[in-house]
Amino acid sequence: MSENNPTCKDVMTHICDNLGEELNSSRCISIKAHLEECDNCKHYFNSVETTIDFYKKYNVTISDEAHKRLMDCLGLAE
Q1: Which of 19, 46, 54, 62 could form a disulfide with 66, with the two C-beta atoms 3.0–4.6 Å apart?
Q2: Count of domains in the chain?
Q3: 50-57 contacts: CB < 8 A, separation 24 or more?
Q4: Has residue 2 been placed in a domain?
Q5: pLDDT tens for residues 19-62?
Q6: Quick one: 13 exposed, middle or buried, by C-beta within 10 A (0-12, 13-18, 19+)?
Q7: Rounded CA gap, 21 and 57, in Å?
C-alpha cells in the first residue's frame, strides 16, 4: 500500500488486517486522510466498525464457510 495515496481496496484491506495499529503511524495517518475524502471508504469503515462492535457485544461466532463467504462478498478473499 502506498502510504501517501492509498486506494479504497488498500484502506479496506488495512482496516480488516490491522485495526490495532498505532493511531499516529504514517499508515494510519494516510488512511485517516483517505477516509475524510472517500465516502465509499467512510461507509465501509463504519460498517466494519459496527459489525465488530456487534460481534464483541454479543460474542457471536460464525462458521469458517460463513467467514469465507463474507470475505468473498467484501472482496477481501485471498
Answers
A1: 62
A2: 1
A3: 52/19
A4: no
A5: 565 667 777 778 778 888 889 888 888 887 788 778 778 877 88
A6: middle
A7: 22
Task: Name every residue whose Cβ is closer than 8 Å to that of residue 15 and which is 6 or more positions away in sequence.
Answer: 31, 44, 45, 48
Q: What is the span of the domain harbouring residue 28?
A: 8-74
18 in a structural domain: yes
Residue 3 lies in a domain: no
Enclosing H/E stretch for 30: helix 26-37
Residue 59 located in a structural domain:
yes
* CA distance between the termini of the chain: 16
The number of helix segments (H) and strand segments (E) in the chain equals 4, 0
